[in-house]
Task: inverse folding
């Protein structure tokens, strides 16, 4: 018995093809926009990363449909031909973006080249996600972003293109309900594994191919379920539920856009926001299929199929490839530049790079093949005058040389990490790692996916003036009466702190936020190590509110003094001005209990003493940090 449905059977007289679906390129444009806003503009798109899941659903749907077409025309998917076409479609753009961005990184400072060798390897071999997982890298580390972090999702898709066709060969021998059941089972298993691993390693859970498959599988389910509609040449009858599907499509696209732009990120979004976005994307695609014929669906096609959205959608692959490396280069080269200016520049440059790549590399190679394209380039060069021919050959060689130099000179760790590691050393010859007067922020998000978070500008908004200490203030008799609770800023300054205040108790850890302070204070109180003067330096990794201040004061008790240290960071650190104002307000509300060590003002005119992230102090900056706290405690 033949279990293959009509579109899967070989027809010796009619060649079957995939029907044109208007609006898919526009959907790609929406997905690209969400991701760019999420990455480039702090606080504007809390869960804009769901744009990646839209791409996954589209890929699962289109790739599965193409495999069904191949099976219908040839009696089974031609895997070698499929993989060759995927390589021609994907690799040229990846190669150009990887080598081009690596070359540009030479001009952005050493921090932009951290671990570049392994990143390039992962990017060019479609294994970026696993390379970074194996290295212990964190996807959510925003303080020192890596140049090619965005390549993780392309690696997931490329690995899907390798194994999924083999599974489809087997599934096409079964009835449609079996195909859908297996796809849903894989999706469910991926969601379950994501949840299981979430508590152990968020990066592993988010970036793993096996733990982020549901979107691809949802798209495959739709392709299997609607194969008669998507594949074939026969006349299509309108779906009796066309109006409902059309309305559902509008609900889907509006819900995706509203959620991506308005819902704040939190651990609860993993994986449920992404699963929901994937399901809504299925609704949108279903509404765009040619059997849905209603006023609602026509309007949706008109919007998503508009010329501008289609133009962007066709180039969305290249835009996605280029936007993150360009952002990282700006991040390290001009860290104090207004984020809106950076976002505009990166968006424009990404579109230009994507258009040039698509027009002169991707599309010609897709149509002609790699060897014919290379032959055509050689022919064009041969027709140029000697100067033009030399320039045409020299330019790509120069780019390759710069990329090689970037890889060879890539440091193992960022200047910020080096500053933290050097902070406890006594060697006076240690200097801050490479940094510039316009360095960058420690933006370690307190929640996963904090792509839109940062650490504040040193220029526009200075914190409110530090209140004068009350006349009755009496400082510590000895420095062992002082307990400093801090984050990596304190770690980077710990030798200078101990030198300036011998005997001081220091409790610091990377990525620590103000939320942890009450618990840490309680532990020191229980252990008898809490001094009469408690210094809290935790404004770098998240906002400080009046409630946080009150919780700290409750934890230390009425008999102790608290010194809050203001934070300093670049414009993307959007919470720092508010945190510094909350600290100043605390000193006004509790003049007898709260003092302010104004690190912001102390370092604002000396950003050359900070590491490349414009947050962590080098050795000389650490001396200023320690002196700021010491003088605050000295009456």
Result:
């Amino acid at each position: 018995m033949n279990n293959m449905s009509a579109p899967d059977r070989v027809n010796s007289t009619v060649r079957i093809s995939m029907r044109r679906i208007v609006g898919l390129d526009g959907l790609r444009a929406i997905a690209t926009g969400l991701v760019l806003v999420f990455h480039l503009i702090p606080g504007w798109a809390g869960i804009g990363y769901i744009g990646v899941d839209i791409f996954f659903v589209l890929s699962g749907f289109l790739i599965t449909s193409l495999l069904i077409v191949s099976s219908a025309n040839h009696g089974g998917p031609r895997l070698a031909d499929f993989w060759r076409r995927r390589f021609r479609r994907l690799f040229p753009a990846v190669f150009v973006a990887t080598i081009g961005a690596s070359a540009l990184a030479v001009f952005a400072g050493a921090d932009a080249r951290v671990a570049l060798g392994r990143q390039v390897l992962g990017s060019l071999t479609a294994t970026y996600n696993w390379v970074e997982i194996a290295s212990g890298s964190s996807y959510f580390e925003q303080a020192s972003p890596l140049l090619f972090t965005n390549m993780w999702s392309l690696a997931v898709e490329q690995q899907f293109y390798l194994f999924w066709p083999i599974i489809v060969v087997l599934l096409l021998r079964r009835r449609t309900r079996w195909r859908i059941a297996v796809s849903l089972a894989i999706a469910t298993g991926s969601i379950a594994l994501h949840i299981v691993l979430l508590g152990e390693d968020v990066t592993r859970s988010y970036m793993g191919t096996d733990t982020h498959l549901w979107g691809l599988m949802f798209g495959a389910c739709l392709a299997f379920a609607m194969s008669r509609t998507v594949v074939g040449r026969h006349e299509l009858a309108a779906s009796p539920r066309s109006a409902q599907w059309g309305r559902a499509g509008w609900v889907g696209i509006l819900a995706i856009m509203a959620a991506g732009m308005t819902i704040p990120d939190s651990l609860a979004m993993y994986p449920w926001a992404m699963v929901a976005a994937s399901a809504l994307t299925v609704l949108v695609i279903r509404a765009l299929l040619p059997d849905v014929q209603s006023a609602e669906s026509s309007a949706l096609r008109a919007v998503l199929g508009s010329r501008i959205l289609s133009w962007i959608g066709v180039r969305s692959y290249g835009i996605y490839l280029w936007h993150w490396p360009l952002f990282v280069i700006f991040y390290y080269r001009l860290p104090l530049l207004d984020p809106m200016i950076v976002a505009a520049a990166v968006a424009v440059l990404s579109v230009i790079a994507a258009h040039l790549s698509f027009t002169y590399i991707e599309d010609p190679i897709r149509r002609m093949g790699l060897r014919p394209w290379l032959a055509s380039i050689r022919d064009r060069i041969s027709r140029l005058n000697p100067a033009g021919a030399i320039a045409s050959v020299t330019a790509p060689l120069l780019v390759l040389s710069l990329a090689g130099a970037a890889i060879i000179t890539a440091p193992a760790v960022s200047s910020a990490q080096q500053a933290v590691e050097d902070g406890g050393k006594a060697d006076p010859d240690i200097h801050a790692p490479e940094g510039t007067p316009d360095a960058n922020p420690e933006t370690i998000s307190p929640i996963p996916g904090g792509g839109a978070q940062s650490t504040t500008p040193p220029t526009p908004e200075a914190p409110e003036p530090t209140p004068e200490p009350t006349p009755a203030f009496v400082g510590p008799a000895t420095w062992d009466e002082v307990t400093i609770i801090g984050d990596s800023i304190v770690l980077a300054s710990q030798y200078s702190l101990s030198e300036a205040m011998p005997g001081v108790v220091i409790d610091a850890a990377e990525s620590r936020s103000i939320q942890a302070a009450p618990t840490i204070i309680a532990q020191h109180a229980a252990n008898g190590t809490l001094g009469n003067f408690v210094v809290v330096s935790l404004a770098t990794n998240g906002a400080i509110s009046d409630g946080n201040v009150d919780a700290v004061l409750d934890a230390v008790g009425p008999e102790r003094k608290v010194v809050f240290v203001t934070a300093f960071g670049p414009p993307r650190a959007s919470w720092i001005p508010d945190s510094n104002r909350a600290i100043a307000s605390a000193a006004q509300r509790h003049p007898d209990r709260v003092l302010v060590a104004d690190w912001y003002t102390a370092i604002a005119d000396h950003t050359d003493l900070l590491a490349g992230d414009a947050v962590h102090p080098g050795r000389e900056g650490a001396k200023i940090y320690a002196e700021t706290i010491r003088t605050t405690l000295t009456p």
